[in-house]
């Protein structure tokens, strides 16, 4: 199973990478994680260039032996809906499966099929909530995400995520394909807060990997001049 | 222009194990003091508690000191000091403060008078202040009966000072208002805020480790590696009851 995470990644922070929890019950083996920074054309306020966000993610992942950053989404000519990114990575996953020869040990058994990995969208509970926002997600896409791929949703209390699922029939229908993982640690490091702290010259050490902090400094990102103008968090 | 008062921050605690949250306290406190315009933080000290403190699941001090040292490899201003942990008995916080303050005074440069032909005495070097760094939860414990000696609380806030880091201002302010001795010296209690909800409980960390769960990105990698190499916080050594 691969976990794909599509987030805007204004800057890379521990929280995005942190929420990997082993699925209990022994049903799954997570074989890889993918961070997919959004395309610049997404047009979100204060979004620094994708090449920076990709580079920072790469630095943050230097010490991970199973998560990687994939710049494909950010390199497209336009912004892509999440479901299209899922479809792309799923195709790539299938393409990378080994073509096994039949292991013939003298018996006429066909080769056992390799288990096809599943690609699941990894997100926080807040993203689950956005499925309810009118006109944000296409209904058909939500269905495809939960039906064909699956969601792994990490949050602190179980209640919020469960409530969001109950609030949307399409989610309720496929709740067997929505995994709720809990992290009791209140580890909500808001990227907006990070950007503001940086623009005010405050320390963000121990909130971001050191290598990412160094990159931000070397490339003069998130400085006072480039920081957001209004004071909304 | 009035020069800033040099400050050293001292954090006492189990550090069992040290987490990114502990380290974060220092960074937030330093930024806060600098923003007042009155202080210049010149150093930070982590002082792991003595083994004789007898807290449940406390791993040997030599490990806790070693882990703190590893965690601080990338810091250019915070260090770990094993003095408290090396004493023959547990020490009250005020005694640790007194020790480090003495050491601070001892380390001040003895300046010769810079005589430029005028008979001026040498300007005195600003004496650094040693302040106790803690979370708002520690401030609350001052109210716990029989936990702190009144005279010690007074000495801590009067002679040294507190820098208290918390998320919401309200809790810490309420604890100060609830204790006359704290109210009296509130000018010497600095409340620093960190909006990031970064409460990494060491108890949670120990439990996660004993259950084989990942704590990557909650602790520095070097500390995780140390814990693994020395077989700390495993299932066998983990706490027996289920209280958090």
List the defining traits of the structure above.
homodimer; 233 residues; alpha/beta; Rossmann fold; six-stranded parallel sheet; 10 helices; 7 strands; mitochondrion (chain A); NadD/NMNAT (chain A); nucleotide-binding (chain A); EC 2.7.7.1 (chain A)
Report on the architecture of this protein.
2 copies of one chain form a homodimer. In chain A, strands 3-2-1-4-5-6 form a 6-stranded parallel beta sheet. Mean pLDDT of chain A is 82; it is low at 7-24 and 227-233. Chain A is globular. In chain A, β1 (2-7), α1 and β2 (32-37) form a beta-alpha-beta unit. The two termini of chain A are 35 Å apart. Chain A has a single domain, classed as HUPs (Rossmann fold, 3-Layer(aba) Sandwich). Chain A is an alpha/beta fold and 233 residues long. The longest helix of chain A is centred in the middle third of the chain and has 14 residues, at 82-95. Chain A has helices at 14-17, 50-60, 72-75, 82-95, 125-130, 139-149, 158-166, 169-173, 191-199, 210-218; strands at residues 2-7, 32-37, 67-69, 119-124, 151-155, 178-182, 186-188. In chain A, 33% of the residues are buried. In chain A, α2 packs antiparallel against α10 (210-218). Chains A and B meet through β7 of A and α1 and β7 of B.
SSE arrangement:
The structure is a homodimer.
Chain A (H helix, E strand, L loop, with lengths): L1 E6 L6 H4 L14 E6 L12 H11 L6 E3 L2 H4 L6 H14 L23 E6 H6 L8 H11 L1 E5 L2 H9 L2 H5 L4 E5 L3 E3 L2 H9 L10 H9 L15
Helix pairs in contact in A: 2-10
């Amino acid at each position: 199973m691969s976990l794909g995470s599509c987030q805007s990644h204004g800057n890379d922070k521990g929280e995005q990478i942190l929420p990997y929890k082993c699925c209990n019950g022994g049903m799954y083996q997570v074989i890889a994680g993918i961070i997919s920074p959004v395309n610049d054309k997404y047009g979100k306020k204060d979004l620094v260039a994708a090449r920076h966000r990709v580079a920072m993610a790469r630095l943050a992942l230097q010490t991970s032996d199973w998560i990687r950053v994939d710049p494909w989404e950010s390199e497209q000519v336009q912004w892509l809906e999440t479901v299209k990114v899922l479809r792309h990575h799923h195709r790539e996953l299938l393409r990378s499966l080994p073509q096994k020869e039949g292991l013939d040990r003298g018996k006429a058994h066909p080769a056992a099929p390799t288990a096809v990995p599943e690609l699941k969208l990894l997100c926080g509970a807040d993203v689950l909530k956005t499925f309810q926002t009118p006109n944000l997600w296409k209904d058909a896409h939500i269905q495809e995400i939960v039906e064909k791929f699956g969601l792994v949703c990490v949050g602190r209390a179980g209640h919020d995520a469960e409530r969001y699922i109950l609030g949307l029939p399409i989610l309720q229908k496929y709740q067997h394909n929505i995994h709720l993982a809990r992290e009791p640690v209140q580890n909500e490091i808001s990227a907006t807060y990070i950007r503001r702290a940086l623009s005010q010259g405050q320390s963000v050490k121990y909130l971001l990997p050191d290598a990412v902090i160094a990159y931000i400094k070397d490339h003069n990102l998130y400085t006072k001049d480039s920081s957001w103008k209004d004071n909304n968090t």
